[in-house]
Task: inverse folding
């Protein structure tokens, strides 16, 4: 079993910043790929950013230059630093981790950006 706990969401004005954190625990015996996704009600979940076990990153085009994903391998934590937030970044954000052939998800954290 793997558990993911997200934190750091909230309400922020446009142009502001938030940092999301996701701590993984459980049956994790090595560094694993992790990522952040977001989803609006009735919409498909979309990839925001991901980071491989060796630190390579990938971003959704609309967040490039504004969001940064990073990880602390000693703590099994992945972060998403979100700067210059826009109202269209309002979503529930989920982190995930790939362990073997299975993908585990956190419970999600709401990010709301007001105009």
Result:
């Amino acid at each position: 079993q793997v558990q993911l706990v997200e934190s750091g969401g909230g309400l922020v004005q446009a142009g502001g910043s938030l940092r999301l954190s996701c701590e993984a625990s459980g049956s994790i015996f090595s560094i694993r790929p992790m990522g952040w996704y977001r989803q609006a009600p009735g919409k498909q979940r979309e990839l925001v950013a991901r980071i491989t076990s060796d630190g390579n990153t990938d971003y959704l085009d609309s967040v490039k230059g504004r969001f940064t994903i990073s990880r602390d391998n000693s703590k099994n934590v992945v972060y998403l630093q979100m700067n210059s937030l826009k109202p269209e970044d309002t979503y529930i954000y989920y982190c995930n981790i790939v362990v073997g052939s299975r993908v585990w998800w956190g419970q999600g954290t709401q990010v709301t950006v007001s105009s």
The radius of gyration is 13 Å. The mean pLDDT is 94. The chain has no helices and eleven strands.
